[in-house]
Amino acid sequence: MITDVFTTRESQVRSYSRSWPVVFDRAVGSTMYDEDGNGYLDFFAGAGALNYGHNNPRLKKVLIDYLADDRVMHSLDMFTTARRDFLETFDALILKPRNLDYKVVFPGPGGTNAVEAALKLARKVTGRTGVINFTNAFHGMTLGALAVTGNALKRGGAGVPLVHTTPMPYDGYLEGGADFAYLERLLGDSGSGLDKPAAVIVESVQGEGGINAARAEWLRGLSELCTRHGVLLILDDVQMGCGRTGGFFSFEEAGIVPDMVCLSKSISGYGLPMALTLIRPELDIWAPGEHNGTFRGISPAFATAAEAIRLYWSDDALERSTIARGETVRARFAAIAARYPERSLVVKGRGLARGLQFADGDLAGRVCAEAFTRGLLMETSGPEGEVMKILPALTITDEELDRGLAIIDESVAAVLG
């Protein structure tokens, strides 16, 4: 295994390769293989970008055929058959069955682009600058998205003041606190010092923040508060969308309709760069070209995205299996927590976004390291890395899921004794 070029030429900002110091070469389904042929069960799934597994054969065929037929690769926002097919499929199988009416903005290749577009448009529509965000939120690494992110390490890399945002407590952050009493009072009191914000941005489940799942009633309360005060609600579904929590959108369970929705990661279905910002039609006040980018229309991603939607969202089979498998994980994690009552382990998450919270980041990190030696990839999350986090592919087999959970069981035992 030769890694010299990575240490001599690649920036030290790299992170995942420090936890998994092997050179990967191939990947199929829920397994990644290093260059020596060793297999690793993947409970990371590209940080949620591979909900349908590595090199999904149906999606791979669509991609190969697209390339072989000399179809359009790069098109900015020109009309293409691939773009049309995606929009028609997304409308017919995702939006209309959920009674959602959104215009689609293609803001650029990644989730942070989707968030930046939403923040920018919210400020343009309202004429206001402030944005309410939440404790332990993560929304991206560009300056606007970073300003509404909570993590101190990531914020510290900005190099400039991150302004025009006000953090509020996420669901469960204040023990026993009334959900929105403080924010409601600030918004309604002309002497509070809080200028009326343009928007509130929130995740239904905070992935990087520690697998913190907001209750449906909390999300409904937030939506109602925004409506009462004329504040736009932006739902960041970059990591938790595309079926990760069960429904295609993570907010479906709450029965809310956000003003804007940010999607990326698994929207292409194949791990190709793609992002969407969904906006209510009356908010579509952009001037032509006012928000643009060279890579806002990566056509092969349109092709795999449309096929993924047809393949997995023409019925509710994937949604039901994700919820059932998520319950399997919850039960197994609860059994682990019960085995170590003195450790006060906390089971967290929804669907197939699950976590086990330890007392500190050292313990969670050691569990992940033990799992890696046993052939399982998973990461930590939370402000101190105290949560062992899993995001297996939604298409994982029952055997693979059971095998991975057994490795986690062994790894926890190795660390906690």
How is this structure best described in words?
With 417 residues, the protein is an alpha/beta fold. The protein folds into two domains: 4-56 and 317-416, Aspartate Aminotransferase, domain 1; 62-312, 3-Layer(aba) Sandwich (Aspartate Aminotransferase, domain 2). The chain contains 14 helices and 17 strands. It has helices at 4-9, 16-19, 45-48, 57-68, 81-95, 111-126, 143-147, 152-156, 181-188, 216-229, 299-312, 317-339, 361-373, 398-416; strands spanning 24-28, 31-34, 39-42, 103-105, 131-134, 165-168, 199-202, 205-206, 212-213, 232-236, 260-263, 276-279, 346-350, 353-357, 376-377, 379-381, 387-390.
Question: What oligomeric arrangement do these chains adopt?
Answer: single chain
Record field, number of beta strands = 17
Mean pLDDT: 97
Largest sheet: 7 strands, mixed
Runs in which pLDDT lies below 50 for 5 or more consecutive residues are none
**Tally of contiguous helical segments:** 14
Spatial order of the strands forming the largest sheet:
4-12-11-10-7-5-6
Distance between the termini: 32 Å
Please identify the structural class as seen in this structure. alpha/beta
CATH class of the largest domain: Alpha Beta
CATH architecture of the largest domain: 3-Layer(aba) Sandwich
Rg over alpha carbons: 21 Å
Task: Spell out the CATH superfamily of the largest domain.
Answer: Type I PLP-dependent aspartate aminotransferase-like (Major domain)
Principal-axes shape call: globular
Q: Which key phrases capture this entry?
A:
417 residues, 38% helix, 7-stranded mixed β-sheet, 15% strand, Aspartate Aminotransferase, domain 2, 2 domains, Aspartate Aminotransferase, domain 1
